[in-house]
Write a structure and sequence with these properties.
This protein is mainly alpha-helical and 135 residues long. 64% of the residues lie in helices and 0% in strands. It has 2 domains: 72 residues, 434 Repressor (Amino-terminal Domain); 45 residues.
């Protein structure tokens, strides 16, 4: 079974590929400027280097989204493993991870609202499965 690649390994792969084909910024400074020009969050060249070398881990979702946009890959690229792709459940697992990361950035009130919505959707889906009249 192949080992799970880290965020740093995945980011480094993107950076190396982009540098090899000349389709993206070649330095952390250029990457930082490109993200800012695209309206993304401020990411210093030093922070980008730390992410790419594994000195910083678990970036906030808005940083992941900005990197995905810069390299034209889906956000799920950073969360999906080769092993998950073949199981049929990997996509759902990735979605759950992305949802959790996004929820982390919400206020306590925002998280309570999301939980209330999840409860509502869960009740609705349960009622649909049970059909008219319930079981």
């Amino acid at each position: 079974m192949p080992a799970q690649r880290t965020f740093a390994e995945k980011l480094s792969t993107l950076i190396d590929s982009a540098r090899a084909d000349g389709h993206a910024p070649h330095s952390y400074r250029e990457m930082s400027a490109a993200i800012e020009r695209a309206g993304g969050p401020a990411m210093s060249p030093a922070y980008l280097q730390q992410l790419a070398t594994g000195k910083r881990v678990n970036p906030k979702i808005h940083y992941v989204e900005a990197l995905a946009k810069l390299f034209a890959v889906p956000v799920t690229y950073f969360f999906e493993d080769e092993a998950e792709r073949g199981t049929g459940t990997g996509g759902a697992d990735v979605e759950v991870k992305v949802m959790a990361m996004r929820a982390q950035e919400l206020s306590p009130q925002g998280r309570r609202q999301v939980m209330a919505l999840l409860d509502l959707v869960e009740r609705y889906e349960k009622a649909e499965r049970e059909g008219p009249g319930g079981t």
